[in-house]
Every structure is written in C-alpha cells, then in structure tokens.
Design brief:
- There is one protein chain.
- The protein is of the alpha/beta class.
- The chain has a single domain (about 20-339), classed as 3-Layer(aba) Sandwich (D-Maltodextrin-Binding Protein, domain 2), CATH 3.40.190.
- It is built from 14 helices and nine strands.
- The chain has helices at about 10-30, 50-65, 85-90, 125-130, 135-145, 170-175, 185-195, 205-210, 220-225, 255-260, 260-295, 305-315, 315-325, 330-339; strands spanning about 35-40, 70-75, 95-100, 150-165, 180, 195-200, 215-220, 235-250, 300.
- Strands 1, 2, 3, 4, 5, 6, 7, 8 and 9 form a nine-stranded mixed beta sheet that branches.
- The longest helix has about 35 residues, at about 260-295.
- Bound molecules: (2S)-2-hydroxybutanedioic acid.
- (2S)-2-hydroxybutanedioic acid binds near residues 44 and 101.
Length: about 350
C-alpha cells in the first residue's frame, strides 16, 4: 500500500479541504442523517501546533460521543477569519468557536486578560496553571459575559522567544528594531521598554512582513515560529522565555444558550478533556519545533545567560506597574498571592 506524499505548501490548503470533504462524504453516506448541529471552529495558527491539535482532539471527542449528530468543522491558519475579523464573525454567528490568544482580549474590552502578557511573570507552566485553573482563571472566564461571550477554558501554547536578524540578548540589541506585536498594550509597552518600536500586525500577515522588511523581528513560541516558516526569514532566534502565550476558548452567549442542555454538557466535557490533552502536549510540541529548527539550520539559536536574562527583566519592570495602574491593584495582588 502506498501513501500519498505530503503536498507542496501551496497545495496544502486545497488538499486539506479535499480530505475534509471526503471525510464528510463518507460520514454522511454511512450515517445518513445530516449532522443536527455544526460547530465551525476558526483560529489563526497551523494544525500541528498545540492549539491546532487540541481543537482536533475536541472535534474527535464531540463527533464520537454525539455519534456524528454534532459535527465540528476545524478551520486553522486563518482560512476563514483572521485576527481583525474573527470576533465579529463570532458575534454575527458566522462561526461558533474561537480560541484567540489571551493577548487579544484587551482591545475588545477585557484589559485584565493582558496580565498574561506581563514579561517574566511566570517561571514555568505550573505557575500558569495556578492562575488558569484557580479562582483568577474562573473570574476571568466569567467576566467574558460582559460582552456576550462564554469562556469554555484555557489552552496553552507556551513561552515566547524573540527573533530578528540578529541576536537579542540585551536591551541594546533591540534598539531601533521594528518588532511585530499582537494587539496588546502590555506587549507594546514591553517592546518600547526594550528600546524597540512595536508594530501591531495580524498573525497571518507576520511572516510576509518579516520577509519584506516591514518589520525586523517578533516574539512567539517556537511552535508558531516553525509552523509559519518564520525561520526562513529570520536569521536569529533568542530563547528568552520572557513571556507566556495561551488562549481562551470562546463561544457566543446566544449560541450557547440556544443549545440543548445535554449538548452543552457534552461540549463542555469534550473541551475539558481536549484542554488537558493540549496542555500535556504543548511543551513537547515546542521542543519538537525547536529540534526541527536546529535540523533546518536556517536560524542561529542563542541562549541568554542568567545575567543577560536578568538585565532584560530589569528593563521591562515598569510594564508591570503600568498595567497595575490600568486594571487596578486588586488583580495584581490576587496574582501575586496566587503565585
Ligand atoms: C500571535 O498573534 O502571535 C498569536 O496569538 C497567534 C496564536 O494564535 O498563537
């Protein structure tokens, strides 16, 4: 038996569509009734990232447990909507589920989510968990109802690294660089504190902007860096581990309320298990991406010394105070208490 070879990048999207269509056709032919409920889950990263894999696990669990009555259509890679329009699509009912990064909630009225962007706040994933799985995480998700959203959980990606066409080991290395950032005031302030100029761009535009020299560098976990092919357009990656990137899974409140109670329970349970799965593999996915990057040999990888990291950390301290002023001391005290 021979396996089809992996298609060239340009054909990949079409190929994925045809695989999805074939799967759907088989299911419809076998199970006859059309699915009673369709959930379109859209996000901006690649399938083989922690988020992409967690969504696929959710899809499998839901379809299996509902006997195909509920189908989940997975649209990775900003195929349907990107950072600029996905939230509106959710509000209008053009998609049912999203998992934007926590950094993207500030601009839509939830500045307290930007606490996850604070540089050097978390030492490791266990500390992140103390927040996402504790009282603060529950409060953050509950607060989403302010703007008609329901939060189903938090997905991990991992810790962010800095890239550019030079090593970024000390604040002086950032001077004058245009660094692509997500729409987070905290991340923009972090880049300014390091001496760089932040440029807010959608995720799906980032690789091209790096290639064209519209921006000089960026930050992301290695899984995103690798799956976007950013290594082809950045000569240096510095393993600064300076900040965390995670996601909140959200649905529209009206859509959620329209579901039968049993379906809500099935979806919530499947999401719970998919989250556990995604969070177990996130670190390994980032390590795999780093190993692949080393093999590709396109990008020099730098590891800052303890003293260099401490210097970077000192340079961005003011960012913590600025957020505290914006969201109030109560949040920051709660965080400090939990950590
Ligand atoms: C980014 O915009 O850099 C990330 O939020 C993309 C993602 O969803 O991981």
């Amino acid at each position: 038996m021979s396996f089809p070879s992996w298609p060239a990048p340009l054909d990949r999207r079409r190929w994925l569509h045809s695989v999805a269509a074939a799967t759907l056709t088989t299911r419809v032919a076998k199970a006859s009734p059309r699915p009673a409920l369709t959930i379109r889950f859209s996000h901006v990263v690649a399938e083989e990232t922690p988020k992409g894999l967690a969504v696929q696990r959710f899809q499998a669990l839901v379809e299996q447990r509902s006997d195909g009555r509920i189908e989940v259509l997975h649209y990775p890679g900003a195929q349907l909507y990107g950072d600029q329009d996905e939230m509106q699509a959710l509000q209008l009912g053009a998609v049912e589920m999203l998992a934007p990064s926590l950094s993207k909630f500030g601009r839509i009225g939830f500045p307290e989510f930007e606490l996850f962007d604070l540089p050097f706040l978390f030492n490791d994933a266990r500390e992140v968990r103390r927040i996402t799985e504790g009282a603060i995480g529950r409060r953050l998700l509950k607060g989403l109802s302010r703007h008609g959203l329901v939060g189903l959980g938090f997905f991990d990606n991992g810790f962010k690294q800095m890239s550019a066409n030079r090593p970024l080991l000390a604040p002086a290395d950032f001077k004058g660089l245009r660094m692509r950032v997500q729409a987070s005031r905290v991340i923009a302030a972090q880049m300014r504190a390091l001496g760089a100029q932040p440029v807010n761009l959608g995720f799906s535009e980032t690789r091209r902007a790096l290639a064209n020299g519209v921006v000089d560098g960026t930050e992301n976990p290695v899984s995103n860096f690798w799956t976007q092919g950013m290594h082809e357009v950045q000569s240096d990656l510095t393993l600064t581990q300076h900040g965390y990137l995670g996601y909140a899974v959200i649905v529209n409140q009206r859509f959620w309320a329209s579901l039968a109670e049993g379906d809500r329970a099935l979806l919530a349970q499947a999401m719970h298990e998919a989250t556990d799965y995604g969070n177990q593999i996130s670190e390994a996915q980032n390590s795999k991406a780093l190993a692949a990057l080393r093999v590709a040999g396109t990008t020099r990888i730098h590891v800052p010394t303890g003293a260099q990291r401490a210097q970077l950390r000192r340079a961005v301290e003011s960012v913590h105070l600025a957020l505290e002023r914006r969201i109030g001391t109560a949040w920051m005290q709660a965080i400090r208490g939990a950590l």
